[in-house]
Specification:
Chain lengths: ~220, ~270
C-alpha cells in the first residue's frame, strides 16, 4: 500500500470524510461536483491542510496523524502536484519553474532534456507562464511534476480549462507517464470519461454542509 | 446626437467645485513661488537644514516601516489567531487619528514623564522627546500604517496555490517567503514604500507635538514652511513648491506602479 488516508476535514459548515487506500503504480480517479471537497482532499494529501481528525500514511510512513499530532511538512512529503490552472510560479521562467527546488544539477541531466522534449517545451523555456496558452502551461506543469522525485502524484482537474485539441495532448502525455510512474497517482476530474480513460479505479467525494451526513470514499 | 449610451446630464458639473478647490491652491503656489530667487530661498541655512533633516528622517522612518512592517503585514494577512483583527484595528488607528494627537500620545509614552520614557531616562539616561529620534518616531507612527495596510492587502492577494506549489516542490517556508511571496508582492512593496515615504516627508502634527520645532534639530520641511510663513519669508513658498513637485513625482511613480500591479494581478 502506498497511500492510505482515513480523514475527516471540517471547516465551519463544510465537512468531508475520506477513506481511501491506493497501491503504488495505481491511478485513482476522484470525481464529484464543484465544491464537493476534491481539492480539499488533495490539499490534505499534499500537506497544505491538516486533517481535522484521522491520519494519512505514505509508504507506511505517517505524514499526518491528528491523535499524536504528527505532521510532515509539504516539502518533505514527496508529493508532486499538478494544481488546477497549473500552479506555476508566475514570476519565474518555465525553465526555472521546471527545476524549482532542485536546482542546476537537474537542468544539466539528460532526464531534464528528455522531459522537455517529450512535453514539447524546448521553445517555451525562456518564457514566463503568463505568456503561454492554457495547454502549454498545463504541459509545463505536468513536466515539473514529472521531473520531481515523488512517491505520490496529485493532479487537480488537469484538462478542465483546455480546448479539445490540448485536452487530447495532455491526456496522452498523462497516460504515457502513468504507465512508467512507480508511485501512486490521484487524479481529480469532474469528467467521468477522463476518469474511465486514464484511471484504474474511481471514487467520489461528496461534501456535506450543515448536517454532518458522511460521504465515504473507499477504494481497495 | 452622440451615438453612445447617455450619461446623467450635468452630473459632472456638480463635481467642478471639488476639482477647483483642490486645483486652485496648487496653482496659487506655482503662481506665487519666487522663481527669480528660488534657489537662494531653498538654500538658505534654515531651508537647507530642514531639507537634509527631512530627507534623512523620512528615509529612516520608511526603512523601519519596510523592515518591521513587512513581517507584521504578513502576520495580519496569514495568521488565524483571534487577536488578529484587534491588532489590525490598532495598527491602522494612526491613519484616522489626528496626527497631533498621535504626537501627544508619543509624548505620554516616550516623553521624560512618559510610560516608558521615564524608565529610559532613569535607567539609561536616554531622552527621546524633542530629538531627531523623536522626529523619526513621529514619522513612523503616522506613515507606517499606510505601508502595513497596502502590504497586508498584497499578501492576501498572493495565490495560495502558487505558494502551495513552492512548498510541494521542495521549498521550505522561509525559502517560499523570500523567493516566491516577496517577488510576487514586489509591485505593491515598491508602491507602499513610496507612499509611506511621502507620508513621512509631509508629517507635521505628530512631529511638532513630540519632537518640537527646533531649527537644525527637529525642524523638518513642513515645520519650516509653517515657521517661515509666520515670519513672512520667501522660503515658505519655495519649500512648498518643492513639496508640490515631490508629490507630483510620487503620484506619477505610484500610478505606473499601481497599474503594473493591477495588470499582473489580472492574470
Amino acid at each position: 500500500m502506498s497511500l492510505v488516508m482515513r480523514c475527516r476535514f471540517v471547516r465551519e459548515a463544510f465537512s468531508i470524510d475520506v477513506d481511501l487506500s491506493v497501491a503504488s503504480g495505481r491511478v485513482l480517479g476522484i470525481t464529484g461536483e464543484n465544491g464537493s471537497g476534491k481539492t480539499t482532499t488533495l490539499d490534505m494529501i499534499a500537506g497544505l491542510l491538516p486533517c481535522t481528525s484521522g491520519s494519512i500514511r505514505i509508504d507506511n510512513v505517517i505524514v499526518d496523524d491528528e491523535p499524536t499530532g504528527q505532521f510532515v511538512q509539504a516539502e518533505h512529503r514527496g508529493v508532486a502536484t499538478v494544481f488546477q490552472g497549473g500552479g506555476l510560479l508566475p514570476h519565474l521562467s518555465i525553465d526555472r519553474n521546471l527545476v524549482f527546488g532542485r536546482g542546476r544539477t537537474l537542468r544539466a541531466s539528460t532526464r531534464f532534456d528528455d522531459v522537455v522534449e517529450a512535453f514539447d517545451l524546448r521553445t517555451l523555456l525562456a518564457r514566463k507562464p503568463h505568456e503561454l496558452s492554457g495547454g502549454q502551461r498545463q504541459r509545463a506543469s505536468l513536466a515539473r511534476a514529472f521531473l520531481s522525485p515523488s512517491r505520490i502524484l496529485l493532479l487537480d482537474e488537469p484538462t478542465t480549462f483546455l480546448d479539445v485539441a490540448s485536452r487530447g495532448v495532455v491526456r496522452r502525455l498523462m497516460k504515457q507517464w502513468f504507465a512508467i510512474y512507480e508511485g501512486t497517482v490521484v487524479l481529480v476530474s469532474h469528467d467521468p470519461d477522463e476518469i474511465d480513460d486514464v484511471a484504474d479505479g474511481s471514487a467520489r467525494v461528496r461534501v456535506s454542509r450543515g448536517a454532518m451526513t458522511e460521504a465515504v470514499l473507499s477504494v481497495a | 446626437m452622440t451615438r453612445r449610451l447617455s450619461h446623467p446630464r450635468g452630473l459632472a458639473l456638480i463635481g467642478l467645485p471639488a476639482a477647483a478647490l483642490v486645483i486652485l491652491p496648487i496653482a496659487a503656489v506655482v503662481w506665487r513661488t519666487p522663481w527669480s530667487n528660488f534657489w537662494s530661498a531653498i538654500s538658505n541655512e534654515t531651508a537647507r537644514n530642514a531639507l537634509t533633516l527631512s530627507l534623512r528622517t523620512s528615509v529612516i522612518a520608511t526603512l523601519l516601516a519596510l523592515i518591521f512592517g513587512t513581517p507584521l503585514a504578513w502576520f495580519l494577512a496569514n495568521s488565524n489567531l483571534r487577536g488578529r483583527s484587534i491588532v489590525r484595528s490598532l495598527v491602522v488607528l494612526p491613519m484616522v487619528l489626528p496626527p497631533v494627537v498621535g504626537g501627544v500620545a508619543l509624548l505620554f509614552a516616550f516623553g521624560r514623564r512618559g510610560l516608558v520614557g521615564g524608565l529610559l531616562d532613569d535607567w539609561f539616561g536616554i531622552r527621546l522627546a524633542f530629538t531627531e529620534t523623536a522626529t523619526v518616531m513621529a514619522e513612523f507612527f503616522v506613515a507606517a500604517p499606510f505601508f502595513i495596510v497596502v502590504m497586508e492587502a498584497a499578501f492576501e492577494q498572493v495565490d495560495r496555490r502558487v505558494m502551495g506549489a513552492a512548498r510541494a516542490f521542495g521549498a521550505g517556508p522561509w525559502r517560499t517567503f523570500l523567493t516566491v511571496t516577496i517577488p510576487l508582492v514586489r509591485p505593491s512593496l515598491i508602491a507602499a514604500t513610496v507612499l509611506t515615504w511621502a507620508r513621512a516627508l509631509g508629517e507635521f502634527g505628530a512631529t511638532i507635538a513630540f519632537a518640537g520645532n527646533t531649527p537644525g534639530r527637529t525642524q523638518t520641511v513642513p515645520l519650516a514652511v509653517y515657521s517661515e510663513l509666520e515670519s513672512g519669508n520667501d522660503s515658505a513658498l519655495a519649500l512648498s513648491m518643492l513639496m508640490v513637485v515631490i508629490s507630483v513625482v510620487v503620484l506619477v511613480a505610484l500610478r505606473s506602479r499601481w497599474f503594473g500591479a493591477l495588470r499582473r494581478g489580472g492574470e
